[in-house]
Amino acid sequence: MAKMLVRKMKAERTFGARSAVVGALAFASLTGGSAISATPAEVDAEAVGMEADAALAALVEGNSKNGEAAALAGASLVVMRGGKVVYEGAAGCARFDAPDEPEKGEQQSCARPMRADTKARVASVSKVAVALAAARLADEGVLNLDADLAGLVDWLAPLDGRGLTLRRVLAHVAGVRDPAAYWVAAPATMSDAFPDPAALLAEGDGEETFAYANINYGIAAGAIETTTGERFDLAVRRLALAPLGLDAGFNWSGVSGKARSRAATIYRWDETAGVWLPQIDGGKDLRQRPPHFLASDDLDRAAYLKAYRPADNPTLFSPQGGLRASAEDIARLVAATTATPALATPVWRASSDRSNVAPGNEWAKAFAAGLEINEDDFAVAPGRTLIGHAGEAYGLYSGAWRVIDAPAFDGLLDADDDALIISFLVTGVKGEPAPGVGVAFHAPTEAMMRIGLNVADRLAGRPPTAAVANEEHPEARPFEQFRNANLDVDRALAAARADGKTVALVLGGNWCHDSRGLAGRLEQPRFQALLDRGFHLVYVDVGRRNRNLDVARRFGVDEVKGTPTVIFVSPNGETLNPGAVHDWRNAASRTVDETYAYFAKHAPKLEDSRSR
Predict the structure, then answer these.
(1) According to the model, what pLDDT value does residue 21 have?
(2) Are 159 and 150 in contact (CB under 8 A)?
(3) Alpha carbon of 42 to those of 8, 81, 349, 458, 531: distances in Å?
(4) By the 8 A CB rule, do 560 and 568 touch?
(5) Which end of the chain has fewer beta carbons closer than 10 Å to its terminal beta carbon, N or C?
(6) Can you tell me the mean pLDDT for 424-431?
(7) Domain spans in the chain, listed from the N-terminal domain onward
(8) Which residues have C-beta within 8 Å of that of residue 165, sequence separation ≥ 6?
(9) d(Cα 448, Cα 398) in Å, to the nearest integer?
(10) How many Å apart are CA 549 and CA 32, to the nearest integer?
């Protein structure tokens, strides 16, 4: 189910696992060169929603052919503005009808389509709910985020004086490192599992060193249980989830039967067998009576929960990643959390030489208590900051982000009547996802964010979002793996036939220095003026010369010898520079004037509107 909700407009469109791809033509206008921006008065909200639906469906389908599995198992996306959902959509499959252990090559059809309100295990986005619950207790004056946890949580008593505060734990700068297992199976306790809690602390790191550790949220859950006298799942529901009206819970605790019946299974793709393999919340899992938790086989679960002593084992309900929620649920969590002063203020920031970043944490640039802060080149689009959290576990990729129109963030976020939140769930990826342009993103999650940003920008009458250069970033990375390149070209040619402009095709890849250099140069004001007057610019991702090569062949270029390859095409489809398409493989080292002159040479002689 996909819905567009703008200014009292409502339109619903239902998609099966694969049917929405028929609208993929609309995807071309979402992020690419020749799209024409509209003013707010001209915005057709319904059209924007349909384009986003088509883009989402195209992303899920990928390059799959009839009968092949799609690129993603399922995906859902929500865009919120000022606390109201302005777009929600879904594509793909929440659950396949094959058994929990499908046979090699077994045909898998969709038993339950993905919906915008489908609940799934959201992985580390769960940490936002933990942080919000802690902040609510701080607001009540019963929990001090800056007090030493050794005086609060019994099993941490040996760490007295080590500066282990909840704020620093939530921001991953307390010196804690993950053990081999950061969960404890009932009926064992935290004291049983970690008799020497000092073993969790890294030796030699400075106090400000960032090291992401899931066990931090087991520690935080213990602080919540000790403070409230409640089991973690119940306390977080009371403090964070119920006040927001969310039908969500850790390990399905408190989630309605209706929501569970529509849940998404998390899948990994088995390339050898050619099937989606269930990882979490398969049919067997969902038939169990909630709440779910890890325990020894002979444990009487009901009796154990009835006799449970708070803080004995706060990892029971997977505080680091076990929240079951929808894309809209996590959007509302991030909206509430980023408007909470105790949480939205940065606690840690990477130093210029990144000496305060532990190995394996290269993706991190800044962190608040429970919130990632991805700025500029760590975000999806230069000039914007994303504050929220990402999730990745068992095949799922998720994210919920508040979007700030600023390249960096040092201040305090308050409640904002116009706050933009984008959230998404991807329940399985076919193959290992490629890295994204933004340092903190993978290609599919970045594509989800870009669709959401484009919805928001289009509704605001702004040009579509692209990964482009700015004054401080002369290299641009506009080559998008998941775009339908031939449709982009078709739309550009149609526009050229209408206005007489030249179609400029730049075939390259974000991995290529010369491709990035040419794209960055084309984003400078001088070139933008030339492009606006005479060209429809289309970027085509050719990977490492192994993708979209049919685009080049359409225009008589049988081989892409290097990147970037630049092809100028007339409105009637004629290649204008057949002998020179390969001449720009050293684009980054060519002069600005040389580049400008080459493009200007192929601009049509159009009447200048200023002379009228």
Answers:
(1) 27
(2) yes
(3) 17, 19, 41, 10, 23
(4) no
(5) C
(6) 95
(7) 2-126+248-459, 485-611
(8) 145, 146, 147, 148, 149, 174
(9) 10
(10) 19
Residues 494-503: tens digit of each pLDDT: 999 999 999 9
Q: Which CATH architecture has domain 485-611?
A: 3-Layer(aba) Sandwich (3.40)
Closest to 128 (Cα-Cα) out of 348, 351, 363, 388: 388
Contact at 8 Å (CB) between 425 and 264? yes
Cβ count near 93 (within 10 Å): 30
| Separation of alpha carbons 59 and 75, rounded Å | 9
Residue with the two structure tokens 């799934």: 120
Distance in angstroms (rounded) separating the CA atoms of residues 473 and 160? 46
The one-letter amino acid code at 117 reads: D
Instruction: Give yes or no for a contact between 253 and 232, defined as CB atoms under 8 angstroms apart.
Output: no
Residue with token string 């059209």: 47
Residues sharing a CB contact under 8 Å with residue 494, sequence separation 6 or more, in sequence order: none
35 neighbors 42 (Cβ within 8 angstroms):
no
d(CA 257, CA 524): 55
And the tokens for 127? 């940490």
Q: What H or E segment, with its residue span, contains residue 450? A: helix 443-459
Q: Give the model confidence (pLDDT) of 164-182 as tens digits.
A: 999 999 999 999 998 888 8
The percent of residues in the chain predicted with pLDDT above 70, rounded, is: 84
What's the rounded mean pLDDT across residues 153-171? Answer: 92
Give the span between the Cα atoms of 369 and 146, in whole angstroms.
Answer: 11
DSSP per-residue letters across 262-322: TPPPEEEEETTTTEEEEEES-HHHHHSPSSP--B-TT--HHHHHHHPPTTS-TTTT-TTT-
Q: What are phi and psi of 402, to 5 degrees?
A: -90, 130
Q: Residue 135's CB: how many other CB atoms inside 10 A?
A: 26
For the entire predicted model, the pTM comes to 0.73
d(CA 42, CA 51): 16
Residue 533 has pLDDT above 50, yes or no: yes
Amino acid residing at 213: A
- Using a 10 angstrom Cβ sphere, with 0-12 exposed, 13-18 middle and 19 or more buried, the burial of residue 27 is buried
Q: In whole angstroms, what is the distance from residue 339 CA to residue 424 CA? A: 20
